[in-house]
Amino acid sequence: MTKFDFPAGLCKVFAAPMSKYFFKALLTAWIFVAIAPPCLTRASTSPDSGQVALAVARWLEQAHYTRKKLDDEMSAKLLTTYLEALDYNRLYFTQQDVDEFQKKYATGLDDAIFRGDLTPAHDIFARFKERVESRVASNKKLALKKWSFSGSDSVELNRQKAPWPKNSAEADKLWSQRVGAELLQENLNEFQPRPPEQTVIKRYDQALRHVREMEPDDVVNTFLSALAQSYDPHSEYMSKEEMENFNISMKLSLVGVGAVLRSDDGYARVMEIVPGGPADLDGHLKENDRIAAVAQGDGEFEDVVDMKLDKVVEKIRGKKGSLVRLQVIPGDATDPSKRQVVAITRDVVKLKEQEAKAEVLDVRGENGKITRIGWITLPSFYANMGGEGPAKSTTEDVAALLGRLKQEGIEGLVVDLRKDGGGSLEEAINLTGLFIPKGPVVQAKDPNGKITVSSDTNPGIAYSGPMVVVTNRLSASASEIFAAALQDYGRAVIVGDERSFGKGTVQTVLDIGKVMPFFSLGAADAGALKLTIQKFYRVRGGSTQLNGVASDIVLPSRTDNVEIGEGSLKNRLDYDEVAPQKLTEWPAPLFLEELRANSKARVTSDPEFVYVSQDMKRLRERIAANRLPLNEKIRRQELAGDKARKDERQKERAQRGPLVDAQVWQLTLDDVRSKRDKLEPVAYEREREKRYLENPEEAEAEEKRDGPKLPEPDPIRNETLRVVGDLIHLTKQNKTASVSGN
User: Fold this and answer.
1) 138 labelled catalytic
2) Is 606 a catalytic residue?
3) Which residue has the higher pLDDT, 662 or 685?
4) Do residues 467 and 486 lie in contact, with contact meaning Cβ atoms separated by under 8 Å?
5) 488 is catalytic
């Protein structure tokens, strides 16, 4: 039984990306307009939520790595997890609410689930909705009162570890500070589309709309995800729609119109047109257009204003080759009553922005000598998980880029895994095989203690030259398997944050409908369970769980924060070790001591790293204090200080010029496929043009105020280029010495 090809599509094993909850506060709620894969087609009847919950509970008990029973202890943990999923900043519920819930449900949620009774989940949500309704009403009144912002009051920034407010009076005080903070923030905003109080009121109206739009199925989905996350942070329940989007992110292709939508004031607003997609080729649908109605083929239009975004997306979906008509309000319309109809034929859309891509860099050293370096950026470990659509493979794409980079005569290679949250386990193993001779890549232990070793069986090597892998705290899962294996083999130098994310667990996806009784209504829409079933271990025996992959050369970084990583997540699994595997180390030395010494000397005097260290010191102090003053004078002084510091840095940058002298050419998979002879050069001017295209009014206003802006320097990239340059030089010296010695 091979990975990604389990019978009847029941299980697909992968080194999963980080949980959706980890990015909850970081990502905009964008949804790709896509067709559901055939195996997830919506049934005419909704599934029985009680049966779905029972199936999820049984799978967690029987197949989760910990094999924990869903008992009274887990019931209490589930209650806390569910309350935090609804009210993650602990502001809406009071301790009185929590005490009441604990008395009623702390030891009874397990029994209710096994009865197929989800009444407690709905009752708790009903209380939450009641609290939100009441709180939004009072907050809107608070927003309209007069504020002086001249006292010594402050607001607590992060309340996720704080106690629940004792009662309504204490909650009122917390919310008064929070509303004041939002109003002050809008007062300080240089670009105000509307008065501060209107902006804040609109924000609360949107929050209330989101809660009101939650249907019983949404409540069940939230509750079941909380159940799974009570076992570990990377297990989760996924609804049919979430499973569909997961599949899209893994295989980087979808069938749809090729637009990215976001909910905005009751409308589905077009945020992005995917290059090369049907909407892009048609040319009529534009960014910032708002969708007012949708029609299938020649059918009647259905109004979608104030409709939930996922419902709008569902109506735009359809089969390849079918027609959808959109009634839109043009983004540049001066009259909001203006409408136009856009008819688009659905087709396959490839998400090329998430594909592997490369650059060729000619870096000029202090002696004037040019060193040619290849740089591959890998956003994720993607693969065609479901077998639908065109085949997609990270390993094949990287191999294609490597072939062209070698033709360009690179002397060294960098693989950039920063912010790569993981993906396919099989791709992580195969990609490692491009750089090492055959041998073990990763170990995995199941709940019974059985160790499975996954190996590269192909003795061929796609690239054998000097190599550096750059990671940060957001490099997780499959990224860590790849980086750890290359480090254990002595194949590559790991550069970046002190360590990577630390996600060392293996997940499998279970189609819940496949394990429900055959007569169950709506089983096709029962969703899926992403379940932790194994733990990863390096070939030398240590787990990547919690510890991640430690960098050989640590560089100051804005992401190197203990608040980012597995250690910051609740219900995480522990670190442990297994027996090491035998391996044949890479024959060429990595000269780590020399590389560290050279890098340390440069970093100490590099002004960009000085800036980073200063910024991180301020950030850590703010995180430790966890409070923001509500005094406008103090805040304006802080903003003025930030601007003065930024302006001074810009002047210093302009005076000293680029810290790395390099000519850069882009290399995409399209270049490789078309066998394009001449690569496209990269220049700062192109970045400015891109900014104007994306938001011309803001870019013009910004340049009138502050002057032309260059992209923010990337000191990690610059120093990585120096490190790989040193490695190339030392490798050449070593080869020369070896030849001379013979």
Assistant:
1) no
2) no
3) 662
4) yes
5) yes
